[in-house]
Amino acid sequence: MPSSESINSKSHEDFLRLFTASESTLRAYIRRLVPSQNDASEISQNTTIVLWQKFGVFVKKHPNYNSADQTKEDIQLHFKRWAMVVARYEVLSWRRDKFRDRHVFSEDLIKKLATDSQENGSTLENQLLALESCLEKIPAERRSLVLEAYSARNKPQEIAKRQGGTLNGFYQWLHRIRLTLLKCVKQTLEAQARS
């Protein structure tokens, strides 16, 4: 249940704007701290709930977050940093619950990964934005095929068969597309660095 400090439509809209701007970075951050995608999804959901419940705390710490003095980017950066701290605590809580599982990272490793992720957050976000931009440059049919290939629900054998080709041929095609995307991402990031 959201705290009384955060229950009003204005706060709800503000939270949604800030959260959606940070969601992909936050999910990537959490995924780097835990061994499986299922664990990351569970922790992401719990983190989202806690962020909403504690949004009043964020607002109190940033009382001028809606003023003209604060840029949208500044507030999003503050929110993102705060959300990463909350996520880190959720990961540590998850770790305590799973302590006996031999596949759980140690607390020291989680702290190291969390620090590295926070320091590299903007780099990862820039890479993700560049990749999205490069994917848009691929013809729609090929783009949907690439995205389908990386979906957990699909098997490469089924995609190759449906396309009327061999599995080896599909892998070769996918490799060429990956190289094209890698080159495009590098060029995009280099162009951003020059500007």
The radius of gyration over CA amounts to 20 Å
The structural class is mainly alpha
Mean pLDDT: 80
| Low-confidence residue ranges | 1-7
Strand and helix order: HHHHHHHH
With helices defined by DSSP (H or I, 4 residues minimum), what is the helix count?
8
Please state roughly what percent of the residues sit in beta strands, choosing from under 5%, 5-15%, 15-25%, 25-35%, 35-45% or over 45%: under 5%
Tally of separate domains: 2
**N- and C-termini, Cα separation:** 45 Å
User: How helical, in percent, are the residues?
Assistant: over 70%
Strand segment tally: 0
Largest sheet: none
What general outline do the C-alpha atoms trace? globular
Features:
195 residues; 8 helices; mainly alpha; globular
How would you portray this structure in words?
- The protein is an all-alpha fold and 195 residues long.
- It folds into two domains: 121 residues; 58 residues, no CATH class.
- The N terminus is likely disordered.
- Helix 4 crosses helix 5 and helix 7 crosses helix 8.
- It contains eight helices and no strands.
- It is globular, with a radius of gyration of 20 Å.
What is the strand and helix layout of this fold?
Elements: H1 9-33, H2 37-53, H3 55-61, H4 72-97, H5 107-137, H6 140-149, H7 156-163, H8 167-194
Question: Brief description of this entry?
Answer:
With 195 residues, the chain is mostly helical.
